[in-house]
Amino acid sequence: VGETIVGEGAGVQPSLREGVDPQFDKDTQYRRYVSKQRPAFGVMRGGGAGNDAYGSGSRPSRQVVLETVKCTVVDYLDAFEDAITNHIAHKVLRSACIRSDRDLKRNRRPGDFERNIDFAENGNLNKYRQIQSEYWTSTTYSLPVSVWSWLSTEEWNSETSELPVGSEVTVNGEKAHQTINQDAFWARVESLPDADGYILVVRQDQTTSTHHRRELRHRKRISLVYGGVSEDKCHYRHHQQEFTLLEEKVMEKVIKENFPGDVGPEGKITKEYQHSDNATQHFKSTGAIEFLTDQFVRRGGRGSSCCFTKAVGCRGHGKGEWDGIGGAIKGVVTAHNRRIMVRLSSDVGALIQSPLDEYKYLRHHYDPDRW
User: Fold this and answer.
1) Which of 10, 100, 113, 208 falls between 20 and 30 A from 365, CA-CA?
2) Hey, which residues does 114 pair with through a beta bridge?
3) Which residue, among 162, 143, 145, 153, has the nearest Cα to 113 in the 3D structure?
4) Segment (H or E) for 260
5) Mean pLDDT, residues 103-130
6) Counting Cβ atoms within 10 Å, is residue 9 exposed (0-12), middle (13-18) or buried (19+)?
7) Based on the number of CB atoms within 10 Å of its own CB, is 351 exposed (0-12), middle (13-18) or buried (19 or more)?
8) If DSSP states are collapsed to H, E and C, what string results for 311-361?
9) pLDDT tens, 290-313?
10) Average pLDDT of span 337-342
């Protein structure tokens, strides 16, 4: 863009430099997402002696809206440059998160537990037939959901179990709970074993090699879902810590009963890799981070093989099966209440009206004997 005009003719749009295509000086339109503050309701605040004044009754909230901007092509390119600069940094961080998550999944060993957390699932217990005044008083609840995953110790140690094509393996891997072999590497099975028991595998760099079955450790993943119901919608640190402590006790009991040997030689979970759902408020959750220090001491302390980590990645990129499970649970509850209200009958069960009712119903609905 040429120099700004000063003095006579001031205020006129600057002209383009000589030789620049005049198309850049034409008007254009583009649309962008912006975050704007919602209007807050004013409430009367008594100050005494005629000092009453209106003030905000709650903290202002923000919403994302799509707005249209009219400007020249040059102005659009300036705005695009500002946006792409931040986006490049975001993409770099996102790529680092993807690589980190991939390396964890390909290098973890039996006894290493991954826990993906979503403590921000909220729901309403709506009545489908209600008087007008009931519309303004809804019963709410929160659903803390976690997905636990780990490697089967039995499959890892086996030297004869079947390895289907596409299975993930660790070549030259040590047996479970032994010192890690630094020469071991991740690979994927590409063929069934030949007559001599040799199997073709593809490495991470897409090169291939052949190894005997006894040299391959099968990386069979086991996953379990833990969910809770709470009437407290505030996802603060004490809420998360309480459910975490309860959750670990339950998971240790379930794993010992159904997957003996997977917990580890200590008889308890001592290596846990946590990943939040990348909610923005988790970046400021100092209590959640500090809580890991207590976990470290509670589970073994300094000098042991105890390890607890927490990963928080790019916001807006934390979706996974844990979100789908929370949505499925809310859908089950909503569908149950709808069936009762539409049929006006209790043949399908009692109406769910409180978080406690929901907890009892979910315990019955997801009972293993029913599936």
Assistant:
1) 113
2) 149, 273
3) 153
4) none
5) 83
6) exposed
7) middle
8) ECCCCCCCCCHHHHHHHHHHHHHHHHHHHHHHHCCCCCCCCCCCHHHHHHH
9) 777 777 777 776 656 788 888 877
10) 78
For tokens 């979910």, name the residue: 362
Q: 359, 229 in Cβ contact below 8 A?
A: yes
Q: What share of the chain is helix, strand, coil (3-state, %, to 5)?
A: 35, 25, 40
Q: Which residue has the tokens 């198309």?
A: 23
What digits encode the pLDDT tens for the residues 162-183? 999 999 999 999 999 899 999 9
- The C-alpha atoms of residue 244 and residue 249 are separated, in whole angstroms, by 9
DSSP characters for 196-259? TSEEEEEETTS-EEEEEGGGEEE--EEEEEEE--BS-----HHHHHHHHHHHHHHHHHHHHHHS
User: Which candidate, 369, 366, 370, 358, places its Cα nearest to that of 122?
Assistant: 358
In this predicted structure, what is the pLDDT of residue 3? 44
Looking at the chain, the whole-number percentage of residues with pLDDT higher than 70 is 79
Q: What is the mean pLDDT of residues 65-92?
A: 89
Q: State the alpha helices, DSSP H only, in 108-200.
A: 153-157
Radius of gyration of the chain (CA): 29
Q: State residue 21's pLDDT score.
A: 82
pLDDT beyond 60 at 345: no
114, 155, 101: which is closest to 269 by C-alpha? Answer: 114
In 3D space, the residue among 147, 141, 146, 148 whose CA is nearest the CA of residue 361 turns out to be: 141
62: β partners:
37
Check: pTM over 0.70? Answer yes or no.
yes
Cβ atoms 269, 256 nearer than 8 A? no
Q: Are strands 307-311 and 271-275 parallel, antiparallel or unpaired?
A: parallel
Report DSSP state, residue 17.
Answer: P
Helix/strand/coil for 71: strand
Whether residue 279 is predicted with pLDDT greater than 90 in this model: the reply is: no
Nearest to 177 by CA among 128, 120, 238, 108: 108
Mapped onto helix, strand or coil, the DSSP state of residue 28 is strand
